[in-house]
């Protein structure tokens, strides 16, 4: 969403990714995400990591789940602010049906 932070300076920790999820959940829901999770980057598929090679420098990523690909392109990262600190957390998209109770 914003530029100006060097990925190689700091890695996105679990706390950073959880903060990004909390701060950006409404934005992602407006784009059509029906679920949002945080996962270790090592759990991402090769396809999910090809959006940017720098994803591998982070420990955790925010995953937005959509039933269909969103009409608007998603940003590659979500910027987290905590005090004077700014960090970009990787954002990945996964296609999955909504959970339905049987």
What would you note in describing this structure?
The protein is an alpha+beta fold. The protein has a domain at 14-75 and 82-88. It is built from two helices and four strands. The chain is globular, with a radius of gyration of 13 Å.
One letter per element, helices H and strands E, the order comes to: HEHEEE
Strand content: 25-35%
How far is the N terminus from the C terminus? 38 Å
Amount of helix: 10-25%
Structural class: alpha+beta
Backbone shape: globular
Evaluate the radius of gyration: 13 Å
List keywords for this structure.
102 residues; 4-stranded mixed sheet; 2 helices; 4 strands
What would you say about this model in short?
The protein has 102 residues and is α+β, with helices and mostly antiparallel strands.
Q: What's the layout of helices and strands?
A:
Layout: H1 14-30, E1 35-40, H2 46-49, E2 60-66, E3 77-82, E4 85-95
Parallel strand pairs: 2-4
Antiparallel strand pairs: 1-2, 3-4
């Amino acid at each position: 969403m914003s530029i100006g932070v060097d990925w190689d300076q700091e890695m996105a920790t679990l706390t950073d990714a959880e903060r990004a999820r909390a701060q950006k959940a409404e934005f992602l829901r407006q784009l059509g995400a029906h679920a949002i999770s945080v996962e270790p980057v090592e759990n991402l598929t090769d396809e999910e990591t090809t959006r940017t090679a720098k994803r591998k420098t982070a420990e955790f990523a925010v995953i937005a789940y959509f039933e269909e690909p969103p009409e608007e392109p998603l940003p590659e990262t979500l910027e987290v602010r905590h005090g004077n600190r700014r960090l970009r957390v990787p954002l990945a998209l996964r296609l999955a049906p909504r959970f339905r109770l049987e």
